[in-house]
């Protein structure tokens, strides 16, 4: 009853094939290609004598090891990635001349990296944080990087404040704590004194900050860009990635426990899904605005702390990205990949969004220190699939061997080659925006409303999501030691909702907000609530708790129904090996109660049976069920396992299927697992 399936994809980016080395069966050599006879012992003067300097293999091996590490990213250090392809559904020729967005059905290789923002490279993955969502399109016109997050807005409006934000959220410098966490004084002090962060903090306190999986979170370009068509007409555009599996999150208690049980939870989920043939799919959507509509809203469309509500500016789905191949080497690909929002192709341009303008400088600047100089574009993962020619030469890590005596423009010795291209021949031309103004360091008045959209977000949440936000504020602000900062935060967010902050004030021991000017926004945006997203059983991980003498006449239909619905089944028992049912059927144990935990699964099915240590088996089952029940997960109980359920603290009710057997399509079980959480469950 082994249910794992693996599909090997042949989708590989052409530019990487030259550099892929399969060396497991090849003779060992030095980096110069010399075959070596010994790799266990260094060259010595006698078996107990000193090591000799002439041992060039020893020196090469140790020197390379000593220099293997490069600086981790200042932000987004903890990341994981995969290869895939983007398929266009509908031509965007009306809006942009970007070549990869012209022909429906055309496919473009992509490389996508997901990440946390605040934590170091070795931190846990299920912390409360923003998630990076960066996609490199290897187009025939050059590489295009869509570099975004899993939240559509940001903490600040102007990039000059980015160092301040990151300094505030990183571990505090006097004691280097806490790691990968915003629940500390300096972050909340920054928030309270930079009120433009209000909207983003609402997202950060929501379930969006603890996604169930990289595969189950939305992605956003965050900034406002431009599409330019062949006629030179421009549209403002925002980018959206919509996961085909819907948008789902962890429970905060569950997220904290996963950090200890499996700090690699998100990367393992991505890796295993692709290895098992459950390829990861996101649809690409765009919001488009004509230039004449730039000022028609009650917010500034260039303000990166604002969304364009989908009810006012619909998202047009134009294509699908499928991630279908894992990386071969995490360092060479995931760590060395260099993204830059300034990597664009003809037909895509920038706006005056002040956060975007700063990003256009910063991304290149950071790669220079991380990747050792200006030639990082020549690393295999960063090389474009199209030819590139220019007069740039030399520098650390240069791989191109440039032939000829000329390395400047203009010239006559090489007939002025390489030469520039006209816009008609595919040359990139910046959009000729009319710009007029005095040099000034100030914020536009249109950027000064910080609370209307924060309240829109709050008004759009379900009751369960609102409760989670209150609990998140209570936890985060409760970790702040300075009582004055706690009070400032409560007073600030009372502008979003007084009742919300009154409850938080009670939880963190400060005064309830007085005389707050609560935003008067009354509308809601249903698109902002996760409760309104797709709910599917596909790839849901189901733990089957089982012992010998299980009833295969009930178990086998459950497993078949689950697999047919796209779920993943894991057989869990007291020890590894083979279990035998009442009728002689066998199943192989995938994990034991010691090696996994309830928080690593989306649903449970208690099959029961007779264990060698029955009392211990009953206790382990109860621990699994109690945890899953407390985290609002679906739980199925076989008829012969009711006695096990009765020894738990769980109560019959929503999401609990007692005496569960299936026939036909097993719709009740499938729909229950697809629901993901049962928030109306009474928790003990």
UniProtKB/TrEMBL annotation:
Cofactor names: heme
EC number(s) on file: 1.11.1.6
PANTHER family: CATALASE, CATALASE-B
GO terms for MF: catalase activity; heme binding; metal ion binding
InterPro entries named among the record's database cross-references: Catalase, Catalase_AS, Catalase_clade2, Catalase_clade2_helical, Catalase_core, Catalase_haem_BS, Catalase_immune_responsive, Catalase_large_C
Domain (Catalase core) ranges: 29-417
Active site: 76, 149
Linked residues for 3'-histidyl-3-tyrosine (His-Tyr): 340-363
Protein family per UniProt: Belongs to the catalase family. HPII subfamily.
Lineage of the species this protein comes from: Bacteria, Bacillati, Bacillota, Bacilli, Bacillales
Role of this protein: Decomposes hydrogen peroxide into water and oxygen; serves to protect cells from the toxic effects of hydrogen peroxide.
Top-level EC class as recorded in UniProt: oxidoreductase
Recorded catalytic activity of this chain's protein: 2 H2O2 = O2 + 2 H2O
Keywords (A to Z) from UniProt: Heme, Hydrogen peroxide, Iron, Metal-binding, Oxidoreductase, Peroxidase
Organism: Sporosarcina newyorkensis
Protein name, per record: Catalase
Binding site for heme: 73, 113, 162, 359, 363, 370
